[in-house]
């Protein structure tokens, strides 16, 4: 018979609810302020009884191209990261080569390199290659964070795929490429989605590369757009907050949709 939660359990639940409310309050206030009429919405009502969508109209008008740029760059970075990381992780997991651990340690070490160091180095190279102020340049730059992380995540998962499954496919006549495409990738779906989600989030939230590698208004991600928007529209906080809401929606929706796969990857890694 299941015992009802005691006083300690109820207290923990209450504390959790209070902490969750405190953490989510800035998000609530951002949404609330975005629905207030134009003007000083910092003194707006606690609840938008008469919501005004003028802020969203202004945000879409001013930041729509920047949102599209961020979406293209983030999707491109996620796709490139998975394209490079999946075969690399499979090779490191399947082929027992000397120095594999050292190589993985080197991949992890790249995550500790300060972003400003990478951005400064890329600026000179991009200037020579003509990649400044281009979406391709931002995709390549953001992939410097997505590829190493994806390799680590995919390697940890692919290493746990039973060798018997690989050998059974080889006995049936499948080559290494066919095994990778038809066996390893489908089995690694949760890990691929997890790595892709984080690669997308890395690129979507990037500010440093956007600030360093774009010098004109031709290509401007939404993170840089919001930064510049704040300085020019401090008297229209509803538009500023609406921009923040629109910039948060893709990441929030993606995390909600991929939550089951991310949890499955973590659970599978823990079991293995």
Structural features:
single chain; 272 residues; mainly alpha; MetI-like fold; 0% strand; globular; disordered C terminus; membrane; BP-dep_ABC_trans_perm; transmembrane helix; ABC transporter permease
3D structure, described in words:
Belongs to the binding-protein-dependent transport system permease family. Keywords: Cell membrane, Membrane, Transmembrane, Transmembrane helix, Transport. Residues 67-258 form the ABC transmembrane type-1 domain. This protein is an all-alpha fold and 272 residues long. The protein has a single domain (56-271), classed as MetI-like (MetI-like fold). It is 76% helix and 0% strand. The chain has eleven helices and no strands. The longest helix is centred in the N-terminal third of the chain and has 41 residues, at 54-94. The two termini are 32 Å apart.
Regions with pLDDT < 50 over 5+ consecutive residues?
266-272
What is the SS-derived class?
A: mainly alpha
Q: What is the string of SSEs from the N terminus onward?
A: HHHHHHHHHHH
Radius of gyration, whole Å: 23 Å
Q: In angstroms, what separates the terminal alpha carbons?
A: 32 Å
Might you state the CATH topology name? MetI-like fold
Percent helix range: over 70%
Strand content: under 5%
* Total number of beta strands: 0
How does CATH name the architecture? Orthogonal Bundle
- Per CATH, the class reads Mainly Alpha
Average pLDDT figure:
82
- Summed up, the domain count is 1
Sheet with most strands: none
Shape: globular
Name the CATH homologous superfamily.
MetI-like
- What is the overall number of helices? 11
């Amino acid at each position: 018979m299941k015992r009802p939660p005691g006083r300690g359990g109820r207290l923990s639940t209450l504390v959790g609810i209070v902490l969750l409310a405190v953490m989510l309050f800035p998000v609530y206030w951002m949404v609330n302020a975005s629905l207030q009429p134009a003007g000083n919405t910092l003194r707006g009502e606690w609840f938008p009884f008469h919501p005004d969508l003028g802020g969203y109209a202004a945000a879409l008008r001013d930041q729509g191209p920047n949102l599209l740029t961020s979406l293209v760059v983030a999707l491109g970075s996620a796709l490139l990261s998975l394209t490079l990381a999946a075969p690399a992780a499979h090779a490191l997991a399947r082929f027992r080569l000397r120095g594999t651990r050292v190589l993985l340690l080197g991949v992890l070490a790249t995550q500790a390199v300060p972003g400003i160091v990478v951005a400064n180095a890329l600026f000179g190279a991009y200037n020579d290659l003509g990649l400044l102020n281009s979406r391709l340049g931002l995709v390549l730059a953001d992939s410097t964070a997505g590829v190493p992380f994806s390799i680590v995540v995919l390697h940890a998962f692919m290493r746990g795929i039973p060798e018997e499954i690989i050998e059974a496919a080889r006995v049936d006549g499948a080559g290494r490429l066919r095994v990778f495409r038809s066996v390893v990738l489908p089995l690694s779906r949760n890990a691929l989605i997890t790595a892709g989600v984080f690669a997308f989030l890395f690129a979507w939230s990037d500010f440093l590369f956007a600030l360093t590698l774009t010098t004109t208004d031709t290509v401007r991600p939404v993170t840089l757009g919001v930064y510049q928007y704040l300085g020019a529209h401090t008297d229209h906080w509803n538009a500023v907050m609406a921009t923040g809401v629109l910039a948060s929606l893709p990441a929030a929706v993606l995390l909600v949709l991929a939550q089951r796969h991310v949890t499955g990857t973590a659970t599978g890694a823990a079991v293995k």
